[in-house]
């Protein structure tokens, strides 16, 4: 009986080994990109272009909130490339030595929008009314943190604070406006692109917004070197920039 | 496109089936133990069994991520044994689903066991049945209805699991993306028509199962 068990175990190991070899022979490497969910539509376009140019690398995406993906990278989840929607999350992983040195790949702007057809022409007008203003929760959402900073820098935080509603992420801010919970919101320029009923009332032009945007870096624990680096290089290419621009992002240096 | 659309549905059903099977074994064992010991000394254990029912799934996901992560001995042992981490795998999705399905199944199975008339079990033992035989041939068949209801309830809960799955099993299309995580991404990226389709599938499946359970409940045997 005992002998049987050993034979059985041996066979299993043999099969597992054979299966391992087979997958090793495949020339295609699959790399997993852990990315902020708001990047989805850009990423699908980028994937088509990238895979056409790099036949030996296949991309698979794990989409979630930047904070959650950061936690997953910290715990060693099999992610090869981290695409973060906030500088803080990237910085923290870089400081802990979990990702390699990365770049700010593409910029974004926080803008103030309204879905009211008339009456409100700028943020200043909002403070004269009793309209509610929705921003992402500054404690957990990058776009909310940036929005708070902008309101503080422009000296409008005091007036804004009493009428603020917090959304759980960038999309939720827009959903709250659609549902009529607020008529003014602070969101990314790239989120406004697909929302035709929203009108931008403030670009915060006088503030450079140097941190907003997406940061990309290779995860150190990744078993792949070439694929992740090729993909990160691709994100800085001219073709990628065009795709980003189409989606309402702002290219660095423009 | 069609394969892509159906993958999360197939995976959700597969994961829920496996989770239901594993939870069934665990909950029968746990409920048997609770009933056998008359609840003595098991109140702490029972509380632990029921905890996943009330904890936010994101907390469960975070705990699982921590336990099976690379910074924990458990996570490292798993990687040593299998050559890869369990994070972001189908097994991770099953584990997350088992944890949320278990409390519901346990409750139902326990109720079933407790309702079995002790005299009948006693009589079978007088006739010479061992503990195991009495359990297998008397208690199990008599508690069948509760067990089946527990399985359906657990399966339905596993089917809808989101928070822990997203954290622990990830959200990779074609690999670990389930109906719930597909809905999340569709909503996040503004594809509400796709979200509605998945929501429709999810609601119909759950409705069907709960309806089945209601029918079972109403049946007198």
UniProtKB/TrEMBL annotation, chain A:
It holds the Pfam family SBP_bac_11. It comes from the Bacteria. Residues 1-18 form the signal peptide. Coiled coil: none annotated. Keywords: Metal-binding, Signal. Belongs to the bacterial solute-binding protein ModA family. This is Molybdate ABC transporter substrate-binding protein. It comes from Rossellomorea oryzaecorticis. The gene is modA.
From TrEMBL, chain B:
It is a multi-pass membrane protein. It comes from the Bacteria. Pfam families: BPD_transp_1. Its main location: membrane. It is found in: Cell membrane. Gene3D superfamilies: MetI-like (1.10.3720.10). Signal peptide: none annotated. Keywords: Cell membrane, Membrane, Molybdenum, Transmembrane, Transmembrane helix, Transport. Residues 9-213 form the ABC transmembrane type-1 domain. InterPro entries: MetI-like (IPR000515), MetI-like_sf (IPR035906), ModB_ABC (IPR011867). The chain crosses the membrane at residues 6-32, 44-68, 80-102, 147-169, 195-213. Belongs to the binding-protein-dependent transport system permease family. CysTW subfamily. Part of the binding-protein-dependent transport system for molybdenum; probably responsible for the translocation of the substrate across the membrane. PANTHER family: MOLYBDENUM TRANSPORT SYSTEM PERMEASE PROTEIN MODB. This is Molybdenum transport system permease. It comes from Rossellomorea oryzaecorticis.
